[in-house]
Sequence to fold (310 residues):
Amino acid sequence: MLDWPAAASSAAVVGSQGFLGRALTAALRATGVHVLEFTRDRPCLTSTGIDAGLMAADSVFWAVSTINPALAEAAPERVRADHTLFEAVLNGLSVGDGRRRVVLLSSGGTVYDPAARPPYPESAAVSPLGAYGRAKLDMEAMLAESSGALGSGVSVRISNAYGPGQPVAPGQGVIAHWLAAAADGRALTMLGNPATTRDYVYVGDVAQALVAIHQHTGILPGTLNVGSGRPTTLAELADIIIAVVDDPAVTLEMAPGRSFDVARTWLDSSLARRVLAWSPRTSLDQGVQQAWSALRSARPERTDASRERA
Fold:
């Protein structure tokens, strides 16, 4: 049995400037962990090989991705590029002392079989409806196949993460899209059925689960769900957004759904609760309020002007 130090000395975050990567980096540093950041400006893999800092890290968090559910459908070349990079890094990391923990940030909302009944435990059948879920499962398989040489690999299936600093990215992040629309005085656009159900988990809670993985001193399951465990429909989410924004001018408009979106998905995160002593602490109402407050603080003049025009 491999044991990691009680307080592992260092962690590497590949994709540290992304939404989850930034939150994770801050949370790790808050516990005194030395964090090495890898970004487009400081790649972990160059023509001369893998960065020495990455090789020396106790934990390597793979938080980088160039795809989301919409982009994976439209740009399969991005999927291939992500896979090629991940495979190359895994191959490089396999040349080491076998005591490294590699943590892949995967997707809990897109990998499970939509024909199964949620909430989904890690043992539930997987059968992704879209290219994004298939891409994440392929990366999970790469990590599982490499884990013996690496030391330990954990695929963390995260549900729909949200919170302050989430970018308004095409095809992903309904809460970020709706809050940005409200701030700009635009209508909230609901895609598909208002009964569509998701599991929204606050970014700070996700970061704490990942810190717990870094701090864990024994063998962990190869797959862990991280979600709120609470189903929320789009209609319920819209009510929360409208209540938090508190602007009578905010309106809601309907648009057609997307072929790769599943009707209902939420996670059973009880395994993470047992092995990590972790549980989500932020309610959806609280998290949306914090995201809205952060957005207004970041651009108060624009937000106030939008509300006046509305």
Q: What stands out?
A: The chain has a mean pLDDT of 91. Residues 13 and 137 are 20 Å apart (CA to CA). The longest helix spans residues 131-150.
